[in-house]
Design goal:
One of its GO terms (molecular function) is monooxygenase activity. Keywords: Monooxygenase, NAD, Oxidoreductase. This protein has about 400 residues and is of the alpha/beta class. It contains 14 helices and 17 strands. Helix 2 (about 50-55) packs antiparallel against helix 3 (about 60-70) and helix 2 packs parallel to helix 14 (about 370-390).
Length: about 400
């Protein structure tokens, strides 16, 4: 089987590696318009369950990933100079560049061809010479946009403006912080992803954004993202403990909602943010893209024929992603109504945030059951056994 993958983000590379593990004879080509180390953002968060899925599917990749991850077990809430520490959680995070490097190395080891600095041909052209085309080209997927009607694409931008930043302030937990300013309330989400490095996402309502005089220009323009990052650092100086904020292609934006009534059109399949998005306040975009890749790899291995594999892939993944999208929508709406809760006392504010006003619990986040993990482990173990048997002959 010949497979073309458009986009060398975590979802695309993980898909390539897993298909190659299950079916080494497959020819897999990945196209990426950017250079290998050219990426946006800072850190990527994984829940304990997400790492369990990676361990079951590829123990070698998991060992490298686990060794490089920062880990924490709390959610800290900062509100008007005081902090509540909520325990009982287990999260890990890693730098996006480091994760991509690990996935790139794993693909190379397995024999996947990656064409960096090369824009992929249109999916329709690829479909003429490849058995399966995977569109892992992100929230602004040109593949999806070229066939919006066929995929049944819905969505648009929604909610407050946000700016994705980094900092050398070492947070020790997933942190939510509120800053009371003369222009109104602002809030931030932060978490560690490497020694001495953390992600810091600032979110601001329109009326506050305008009153504060933020520029809206990117970090590469004079007076743009860099100046805004410095101003945000001033508003959150207590939380940042005096540390600066860093930019990396940081631009003010709004969360882009993406839903599709169909995840495939002919032999072209959507994966990750090209198929669905979830608000960053629940931190699951990369996780969902990689879990899509796992489900697609398993479906291709089990069914062989592409049409049946794509039906099985969507049937497996759609329930979890739609559940996560509902959870993310509730979370985003709560943060959009933050002013309703900021005058509450610390304990009450914390309770509202952690439960998003009683509408969310930890049970709202899909997890991997032991039986499901064991099934995945068995499927890949059998593939390894077949490969060893072939090599012996």
């Amino acid at each position: 089987m010949r497979i073309a993958i458009i986009g060398a983000g975590p979802g695309g590379l993980y898909t390539a590696a897993l298909v190659k593990r299950l079916r080494p004879a497959c020819e897999i080509d990945v196209w990426e318009a950017n250079a290998p180390d050219e990426t946006f953002g800072f850190g990527v968060v994984f829940s304990e369950g997400a790492l369990g899925g990676i361990e079951a599917a590829d123990p070698r990749l998991f060992a490298r990933l686990a060794a490089a991850c920062e880990q924490w077990s709390r959610i800290d809430v900062h509100h008007r100079g005081r902090i509540v520490r909520n325990g009982g959680y287990r999260f890990s995070a890693i730098g996006r560049r480091v994760l991509l490097s690990m996935l790139r190395t794993r693909c190379t080891e397995l024999g996947v061809t990656i064409r960096y600095g090369t824009r992929a041909p249109e999916a329709a052209l690829l479909a003429g010479t490849y058995d399966l085309v995977v569109a892992a080209d992100g929230v602004n997927s040109s593949t999806r946009e070229a066939h919006r009607e066929e995929f049944g694409t819905e969505g648009g931008e929604r909610g407050s403006r946000y700016l994705w930043l980094g900092t050398d302030r070492t947070f020790t937990a997933l942190t939510f912080a509120v800053a009371d300013t003369e222009f109104g309330s602002m809030h931030a989400h932060a978490y560690p992803y490497a020694p001495g490095l953390s992600t810091f996402i600032a979110e601001v309502d329109d009326h506050v954004w305008e009153a504060a005089g933020f520029t809206g220009r990117g970090a590469g323009t004079p007076g743009g993202g860099r100046a805004d990052a410095d101003r945000i650092a001033g508003f959150f100086v207590d939380v940042l403990e005096g540390h600066r904020l860093r930019t990396n292609k940081s631009r003010w934006g709004r969360f882009a909602v993406v839903r599709n009534r169909r995840w495939s059109h002919g032999t072209v399949a959507l994966l990750g943010d090209s198929a669905h998005t979830t608000h960053f306040s629940i931190g699951s975009g990369t996780r969902l893209a990689m879990e899509d890749g796992l489900a697609l790899a398993l479906a291709v291995d089990e069914h062989g024929a592409v049409p049946e594999a794509l039906i099985a892939y969507e049937a497996e993944r759609r329930p979890d992603t739609e559940s996560m999208q509902r959870t993310a929508r509730i979370s985003q709406e709560w943060f959009g109504e933050l002013d309703r809760y900021t005058d509450l006392g610390l304990e009450a504010f914390n309770a509202h945030l952690i439960t998003r006003s009683g509408r969310l619990t930890q049970d709202d986040l899909p997890s991997w059951s032991p039986d499901r993990v064991e099934l995945i482990r068995d499927r890949f173990a059998r593939a390894d056994s077949r490969l060893r048997g072939t090599a012996a002959r």
